[in-house]
């Protein structure tokens, strides 16, 4: 029954995933709710995996004493046990309020084949046997928790097993004689199996599953510099109808992680249980990403004339800018321009159901590229816009698509006199629409991983998006 013990806990691995070295008890950025419907799906899939696993194992040998009338007591041994067939009909995985999960398997049967030996001081008998074990029922309660590192913990708090019937048929040297005493043999076989099932399950949970959980990674790479921390912030919560798992959901810089001043919102999911899995995501997840990518300079950009499509009527040259900056073309005839954009502070996102929006504020410095390869600053602009995005969730990651708003340009400083900003505004709208946003959409198309679902394929998902505590960010003067 070793594989049975090993495989039962594996049903839970899709439902338990990891955490990080932060203090437990903080509000989560991501909450996953696995409903009773989702747990039953996991139990069914686990039952199929268990049934396949059972057919590949060898059961442990067992021995005992046997009284044979007119012969006396002898020593028996059953060895080379292999499961020839198995039928696992029913399974259930249910939440246990305040504790964890209860896993049960019932109305199941297996057929075992192997070899037997009987020894008496003056003789030795051996042969083969066939055992049919029917009406197998197993019930295991698993206590779920979390440790200070954020990794999950699991303990088999109780276990019971029952076998309704065992039938043994023996062949070989005087096998017919032993069959006369099959009641003794079947009774011993049944007692051994019933006692070993729970013993092996509890040993497997403590010696295999729990140590394995302690080896699980607590972060996942997003790209060359950013990681996501999907640690548990507290032990999984079990109620009568669901299991909720709370993840930190913080995106951080891999090489120099620093404390985040943002606070994740308190999230409350509606009392819905129609779908297998529900997700609640706070904009804390995306705002920590914004901090990291801003720090890395990913939001800064530079535009030169060779980046403008050849067929564009607008060029980044002093000549092209003559209609709205006449002095620029006179002071720097037939020279190219470069626009350098920076974001003074990381833009913070706002959530509404199914969408997110952000109001980024940028500063753009314009330079003339002199023949000496030096750059001469000529004006500075402030740029404000609104961006919204739709989000898509599947069984492995979050993806999205940006929908740009119109860019508004304001002149902050000019060293070449007055000019009309409308043309530059049009140029920026063209570039951002055709170059800048596609770059970000490519990144969003790659997506952010949802490690919770890497080990299970689910088809019935729900989503709720939550807003963080309000925050205020003033634009630079």
UniProtKB/TrEMBL annotation:
One of its GO terms (molecular function) is lipopolysaccharide binding. Disulfide bonds join 159-198. The keyword Glycoprotein applies. This is Lipopolysaccharide-binding protein. Keywords: Antibiotic, Antimicrobial, Disulfide bond, Glycoprotein, Immunity, Innate immunity, Lipid transport, Secreted, Signal, Transport. It holds the Pfam family LBP_BPI_CETP. One of its GO terms (cellular component) is extracellular space. Plays a role in the innate immune response. Binds to the lipid A moiety of bacterial lipopolysaccharides (LPS), a glycolipid present in the outer membrane of all Gram-negative bacteria. Acts as an affinity enhancer for CD14, facilitating its association with LPS. Promotes the release of cytokines in response to bacterial lipopolysaccharide. PANTHER family: BACTERICIDAL PERMEABILITY-INCREASING BPI PROTEIN-RELATED, LIPOPOLYSACCHARIDE-BINDING PROTEIN. The keyword Mitochondrion does not apply. GO terms for biological process: defense response to Gram-negative bacterium; innate immune response; lipid transport. Residues 271-471 form the Lipid-binding serum glycoprotein C-terminal domain. Its main location: secreted. Residues 33-256 form the Lipid-binding serum glycoprotein N-terminal domain. Belongs to the BPI/LBP/Plunc superfamily. BPI/LBP family. PROSITE patterns: LBP_BPI_CETP. InterPro entries: Bactericidal_perm-incr_a/b_dom, BPI/LBP, BPI/LBP/Plunc, Lipid-bd_serum_glycop_C, Lipid-bd_serum_glycop_CS, Lipid-bd_serum_glycop_N. Residues 1-25 form the signal peptide. The gene is LBP. It comes from Homo sapiens (Human). The lineage of its organism: Eukaryota, Metazoa, Chordata, Craniata, Vertebrata. When bound to LPS, interacts (via C-terminus) with soluble and membrane-bound CD14. It is found in: Secreted.
């Amino acid at each position: 029954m070793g594989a049975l013990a090993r495989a039962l806990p594996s049903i839970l691995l899709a439902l338990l995933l990891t955490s990080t070295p932060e203090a437990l008890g903080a509000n989560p950025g991501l909450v996953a709710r696995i409903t009773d419907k989702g747990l039953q799906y996991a139990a069914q899939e686990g039952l199929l995996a268990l049934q396949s696993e059972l057919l590949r194992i060898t059961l442990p040998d067992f021995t005992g004493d046997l009284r044979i009338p007119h012969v006396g007591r002898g020593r028996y041994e059953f060895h080379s046990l292999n499961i020839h067939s198995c039928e696992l009909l029913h399974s259930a995985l249910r939440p246990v309020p305040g504790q964890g999960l209860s896993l049960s398997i019932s109305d199941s049967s297996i057929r075992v084949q192997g070899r037997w030996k009987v020894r008496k001081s003056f003789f030795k008998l051996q042969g083969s046997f066939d055992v049919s074990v029917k009406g197998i029922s197993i019930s295991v309660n698993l206590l779920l928790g979390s440790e200070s590192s954020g990794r999950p913990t699991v303990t088999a708090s109780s276990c019971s097993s029952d076998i309704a019937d065992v039938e043994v048929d023996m062949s070989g040297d005087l096998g017919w004689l032993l069959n006369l005493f099959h009641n003794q043999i079947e009774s011993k076989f049944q007692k051994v199996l019933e006692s070993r099932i729970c013993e092996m399950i509890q040993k497997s949970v403590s010696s295999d599953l729990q140590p394995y959980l302690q080896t699980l990674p607590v972060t996942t790479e997003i790209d060359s510099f950013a990681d996501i921390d999907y640690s548990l912030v507290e032990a999984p919560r079990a109620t009568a109808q669901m299991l909720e798992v709370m993840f930190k959901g913080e995106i951080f810089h891999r090489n120099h992680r620093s404390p985040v001043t943002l606070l994740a919102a308190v999230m409350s999911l509606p009392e819905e249980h129609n779908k297998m899995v529900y997700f609640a995501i706070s904009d804390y997840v995306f705002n920590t990403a914004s901090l990291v990518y801003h720090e890395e300079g990913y939001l800064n950009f530079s535009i030169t004339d060779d980046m403008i499509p050849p067929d564009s009527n607008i060029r980044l040259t002093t000549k092209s800018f003559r209609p709205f900056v006449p002095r620029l073309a006179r002071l720097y005839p037939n020279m190219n321009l470069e626009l350098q954009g920076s974001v003074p502070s990381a833009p913070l996102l706002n959530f509404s159901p199914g969408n997110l929006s952000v109001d980024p504020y940028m500063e753009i410095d314009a330079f003339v590229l002199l023949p000496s390869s030096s750059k001469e600053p000529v004006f500075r602009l402030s740029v404000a816009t609104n961006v919204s995005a739709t989000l898509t969730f599947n069984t492995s990651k979050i993806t999205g698509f940006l929908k740009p708003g119109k860019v508004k340009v304001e002149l902050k400083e000019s060293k070449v006199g007055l000019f009309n900003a409308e043309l530059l505004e049009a140029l920026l709208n063209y570039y951002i629409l055709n170059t800048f946003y596609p770059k970000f959409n490519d990144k969003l198309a790659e997506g952010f991983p949802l490690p919770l679902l890497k080990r299970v394929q689910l088809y019935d998902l729900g989503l709720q998006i939550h807003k963080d505590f309000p925050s205020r960010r003033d634009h630079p003067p």
